[in-house]
Amino acid sequence: MRIRLDFNNRAHRQRIKYVVCDFVMSNIAWFIYNIVRYQMGHVVGYAHLSNYLTSKIVLLGQVFFPLMMMVTYAFSGYYNEVCRKSRVQELLTTAASAAINTLLIFFLALINDVIGVRGMDYEMIFILWALLFGWVYGMRLIITNHATQRIKSRRWTFPTLIVGSGSAALAFADKLNKARNSAGYDIKGFVNIPGEAPVQGNPLPCHDLKDIQQVCDNEGIWELIVVPTRDDFQNTMHAINHLFALGLPIKISPERFNMMQSQVRISDIYGEPLVNISRSSMSDSGKNIKRAIDILVSASALVLLIPIYAAVGITIKLTSPGPVFYLQRRIGFHNKPFNIIKFRSMVQDAEAAGKPQLSSDNDPRITPFGRFMRKYRIDELPQFWNVLKGDMALVGPRPERKYYVDLITKRVPAYALLHQVRPGITSMGMVKFGYAKNVDEMVERVKYDLMYLDNMSLLNDLKILIYTIKIVFTGRGM
User: Is the pLDDT reported for residue 447 higher than 70?
Assistant: First the structure.
């Protein structure tokens, strides 16, 4: 575990560098802008520049606005990945963050500075953007270039496992090791994919897939690269599904990714191009905003719906024996199990036989009040607690029990890719298809969830939520 902690500390130190430098540079940029404002005549009532810069309103702004800028930087996703950054993406992200901060500052503090000359107003807005962008981006570029040079020169490396042990895996590892400019991969060994014959004479250790958790812990593995020898879709997806639970980046070469029926997300450009299949196609800023919305909405719902929760709970207790809530083990983000919480809509011990059973329209296990709840999806309301905890999202593929996950994955191996994202209270599959009554219908619904994965966006989430609200109010939940 010591190696793993060393690399986590490196990422932590790198993130601190970016955060501290962003805050300092934002302070400098805002301070210089205040000097420019004064010199260009946008501030009146102060005899000298020093009187203005030491005034209470300016000192307050010198604290508030840089902190506000830091919130924008965090939501932009800039601090999500700190060790290996794309400098093009860094440029675009910094420019966009500076533009957003400029507009926020203008409408919060500068709109009263206007002097009636539109050209001068635009000039001041551009000066503010240029200062915020120039100072912040300049220091970011220095830090990023320093890290990139250390990676290329192999002074910074990241312990990596190749998932695959055939000739293609060995050739790929040899290609990475011989690259003139290193991408930072330090190959620690290989992992057998079921059904694949390992190459004899491999100088590095070759591990079984079932032992990969222990290997990752012992070696401090940073990421995984999947390199199957042949296009064995079934076994490759089985291996990938097993890897999600590790919570590590999972990458695969583009030519082997074409079998997975999903859009490509290239993560390495200057080195060997690889597709990161452990991350969805949504941008880092989109993910941060999505999670912030999930927290805000679920926390508000849990408070505002207390009267409804109380009324539903009392009705359940009065109409059928058993507990108010029902916990069920589901498979969620990164293939990790969690307990989904619902209002109980069936009789107690509905699956006493032990084998999981899907419900149908005329299922005798559903209580009369449970049928009403399922029609309007009231039974799903406690899942706002799952969202607040981070087990789920408002919108995402519906989570299933492991029994059904295994059945679906055998028929649709690409189903494993849905574990890239948090499951949702509602989904495109639920909106377009509804509840599934058998495995065949579950397979049909998966097609919509895979479509959602390829087209994840905040706008599509909003559309799905609107359609879900319509379904709830029209009673088309079952």
Answer: yes
Pair 144, 214 in one domain = no
What angle is formed at CA 268 by the lines to CA 265 and CA 272, rounded to 5 degrees? 115
For the record, the structure tokens of 247 come out as 């919570």
Q: Please tell me whether residue 97 adopts helix, strand or coil conformation.
A: helix
Closest CA to 293 of 281, 308, 282, 278: 282
196, 226 Cβ separation under 8 angstroms: no
Task: Say yes or no: 66 and 114 in one domain.
Answer: yes
Burial string for 108-118 (b: 16+ CB within 10 Å, else e) reads: eebeebeeeee
Please enumerate in sequence order all residues whose Cβ is within 8 A of that of 370, keeping only pairs 6 or more positions apart, or say none.
320, 344, 345, 346, 379
**Co-location of 466 and 332 in the same domain:** yes
**Which domain covers residue 272, as residue numbers?**
158-276
Amino acid occupying residue 295: I
Q: Give the model confidence (pLDDT) of 262-312 as tens digits.
A: 554 555 545 566 878 888 878 899 999 999 999 999 999 999 999 999 999
> What pTM was computed for the model?
0.84
Is there a contact between 347 and 367 (Cβ–Cβ < 8 Å)?
A: yes
* Helix residue ranges, H only, 40-117: 49-53, 56-75, 87-105
- Segment 437-461 mean pLDDT: 89
* The last residue of a domain, from among 259, 276, 293: 276
310 C-beta neighbours (distance < 10 Å), count: 10
Check: CB of residue 289 under 8 Å from CB of residue 458.
yes
Look at residue 349 in the predicted model and tell me its pLDDT.
Answer: 79
- Classify burial at 395, counting beta carbons within 10 Å of its beta carbon; exposed 0-12, middle 13-18, buried 19 or more: buried
Closest CA to 418 of 436, 398, 435, 438: 398
Domain count of the fold of the chain? 3
Cβ–Cβ under 8 Å, residues 328 and 342: yes
CA–CA separation, 467 vs 464, rounded Å? 5
pLDDT confidence of residue 268: 54
Of the candidates 152, 167, 194, which is a domain's last residue?
152
| pLDDT digits 0-9 by tens, 397-434 | 999 999 999 999 888 888 888 999 999 999 998 888 77
Residue 408 vs residues 330, 451, 454: alpha-carbon distances, Å: 14, 16, 19
Domain CATH for 258: 3.40.50.720
Q: How many CB atoms lie within 10 A of CB 131?
A: 21
Sheet holding 223-226, edge to edge: 206-207, 185-191, 158-163, 223-226, 250-252, 275-276
Q: Please give the mean pLDDT across all residues of the chain.
A: 87
